[in-house]
Amino acid sequence: MVNLLATDDDKEKYSRYLLRSYIEDNRKLNYIVLGEADIRHRQEEDINRVSAVLSLSRVAACILLRHYNWSVSMVNDEWFADEENVRRVVGLLEKPIELPNARELTCGICFENYPRDRISSAACGHPFCYIGTSISDGPGSLSLRCPDPSCNAAVGQDMVNLLATDDDKEKYSRYLLRSYIEDNRKVINMGSGSYDVCCNCTYGFCWNSTEEAHRPVDCSTVATWVLKNSAESENMNWILANSKPSPKCKRPIEKNQGCMHITCTPRCKFEFCWLCLGAWSDHGERTGGFYACNRYEAAKQEGAYDESERRREMAKNSLERYTHYYERWATNQSSRQKALADLHSMQSEKLKKLSDRQSQPESQLKFITEAWLQWSVGEY
Question: Under 8 Å CB-to-CB from 160, ≥6 apart: which residues?
Fold first, then answer.
């Protein structure tokens, strides 16, 4: 319609607007959010590709891909360079060995006898029944090998499906999917630019640091801040700034009121002067009484306490500075959590009511969520 009715100048302007919109949209979003079905589809495509190229079963292709971090190109390169070595390292036998044709077989792990239809083996032919227990151990079950000490044959998903319970089959499937996501560089490639990611659930995080989205603050600063909030260094700063060690047992003591006469807690019970840390038995009216210490003042003038006072003052200033920024950060975090709760309420309840009232589908009201995020949460 534009090309039909507009002037040449307007057509050119319209074309530039389209190009600018394309560039800005792609610059803003340098990632795509994949659902579980999308990831499983990609995983299945990679398995089928390896299976077709190398003329292997789906199970064998899956074992190869897991070993090479789901890199199709690396599997192909290593396989065609030295197939025999790859088979040995991964545990794929070229000629599978059938189980003995007997009514009962003895498991090589528990040494119990099982009917032939309740026991199986990897391609090596060694019978066993330990699949369920191994899957309960966690993602390590993806690398199961034959339990025979002299054997290295890999255990694939076909054996899991044959011997495991439905719950264990589901666990194994999820371990396999998790491996595809965590080990596959192709899935986690963010490209260039910002690392900020916003999931479909509206949770925003930094792909590089895995912390909450923190743009424009760089990842190293965020890491330092997180460490400072969780480390014991701030406790030590507080102790240095607000306490002194007992002269006898070295236990830190805080003084927040009262005179300079301090008595350490049991079992120590040492009595000393808070200012000079000398024994209280050497103090009295001649040294300044309960609220002063002539010895401390004289030693201070000679510079005896300069280093300790300097360290205590530095610790106090550092603690006050940290507290200043932490209180503001904590307040902002609290406000942000409230905004996110309001956003969830709006999406789950109020948006539906507005859709019914305006007789518009919720998809037409998506701009409200984006505006809310920009205004109150700051994810975009």
Answer: 131, 135, 141, 168, 169, 172
* Rounded average pLDDT over 323-352: 78
Q: Is 259 a catalytic residue?
A: yes
Strands (E), 190-349: 196-198, 204-206, 243-245, 252-254, 261-263, 271-273
Phi, then psi, of 66 in degrees rounded to 5: -65, -40
Selecting among 124, 199, 249, 259, the annotated active-site residue is 259
Tracing tokens 């038995």 back to the chain, one arrives at 281
| Helices (runs of H) and strands (runs of E) counted in the chain | 15, 10
Listed residue (32, 40, 63, 57) closest to 152, CA to CA: 63
Within 10 angstroms of residue 135's Cβ, the number of other Cβ atoms is 24
Instruction: Judge whether 157 and 47 are in contact, CB under 8 Å.
Output: no
**Phi, psi (5° rounding) for residue 255?**
-115, 115
pTM for this prediction: 0.53
Which residue(s) pair with 271 in the sheet?
Answer: 263
Nearest to residue 120, comparing CAs of 131, 112, 110? 131
Give the range with max mean pLDDT: 21-30, 187-196, 269-278: 269-278
What is residue 23's predicted lDDT score, i.e. its pLDDT?
Answer: 43
Longest dimension (CA), the chain: 105
Distance CA 369, CA 374 (A): 9
CA distance linking residue 176 with residue 168, whole number of Å: 12
**What is the C-alpha separation between 90 and 75, in angstroms, rounded?**
11
Cα separation, 2 vs 8, whole angstroms: 10
SS3 letters for 180-236?
Answer: HHHHCCCCCCCCCCCCEEECCCCCEEECCCCCECCCCCCHHHHHHHHHHHHCCHHHH
Q: What is the pLDDT of residue 82?
A: 93
pLDDT digits (tens, 9 = 90+) for 200-248: 776 778 877 778 887 788 888 888 887 777 766 667 667 777 788 888 8
Q: Which two tokens stand for residue 231?
A: 């480390």
pLDDT, residue 58, reads 92
Residue pair 369/355 in contact by the 8 Å Cβ criterion: no
